[in-house]
Write a structure and sequence with these properties.
alpha/beta, four-stranded antiparallel beta sheet, 39% helix, 11 helices, globular, six-stranded mixed beta sheet, Rossmann fold, 247 residues, single chain
Length: 247
């Protein structure tokens, strides 16, 4: 069953067209990764799905329902949560307060259950529960951002550059958590700078260039693609490239 359908999506910033006829789909239970250089339009696409940007034209459907005109609050209530690039935790609130804010759309009786699940996945957050989020390390903040999104119990999780700015050993921890999320059957759309790790985790992928989808296919096929290898895999450092072996 298709969970997310995007057809011929155009998004503009004033006179600048950031997305040009983008079409993609994500089926229930899949992990789909979106690759592309800086400025290709990846974050614009994620923000459009989560209701932070209004598309100029095209179709954006979640479980068959159009969401192109819904605001961010309505999108979350439908079952889509985003982990934004740069984590965006609330620095002056504690870890527990950040997590509880993530569950604001849930019935009160279900929040405690979600919190327990998140803390099992990220035991370090349990240790830091009373600590201000702004005092956490970058890796801990990323765990908190993912946990906050999971508190809403989403049907579709949007992850925008979860490894950005993190040391390779922390990246391995984050991807280990993403593998746990996959094993739980959650559907994920992943934007990730580390193409090798993303494709080893994902079922399928799309390559976005200057606002257009230029390539798509199964993750194993994209890993073997000469274009993908030359553009996205050849530039990885030896330390980062070795990281998937520990995931």
């Amino acid at each position: 069953m298709r969970l997310l359908d995007i057809e011929n999506l155009d998004v503009r910033y004033g006179h600048i067209q950031a997305l040009k006829g983008v079409s993609l789909s994500v089926a229930e239970g899949e992990i789909v990764t979106l690759l592309g250089a800086n400025g290709a339009g990846k974050t614009t696409l994620m923000r459009s799905i989560s209701g932070l940007l209004r598309p100029h034209s095209g179709a954006l459907r979640f479980r068959g329902q159009s969401i192109a005109r819904l605001g961010a609050d309505g999108i979350v209530r439908l079952g889509i949560s985003q982990v934004p690039e740069g984590r965006r935790v609330f620095p002056t609130l504690t870890v527990s307060e950040n997590l509880m804010l993530g569950g604001y759309t849930r019935p009160p009786g279900e929040v405690a259950q979600s919190l327990a699940q998140v803390l099992r996945m990220f035991p370090r957050l349990q240790e830091r529960s009373k600590q201000f989020a702004g005092t956490l390390s970058g890796g801990e903040q990323q765990m908190l951002a993912i946990g906050r999104a999971l508190m809403a119990k989403p049907k579709l999780l949007l992850l925008d550059e979860p490894s950005l700015g993190l040391a390779p050993i922390i990246v391995r921890d984050i991807f280990r958590s993403l593998r746990q999320i996959r094993e739980q059957g959650m559907t994920v759309l992943l934007v990730e700078q580390n193409a090798r790790m993303a494709l080893k985790l994902a079922d399928r992928g799309y390559v976005l260039e200057t606002g257009r989808i230029m390539l798509e296919g199964s993750a194993p096929v994209l890993l073997q693609s000469p274009d993908v290898q030359a553009t996205y895999l050849g530039k990885e450092s030896a330390a980062v490239a070795a990281a998937p072996q520990a995931v």
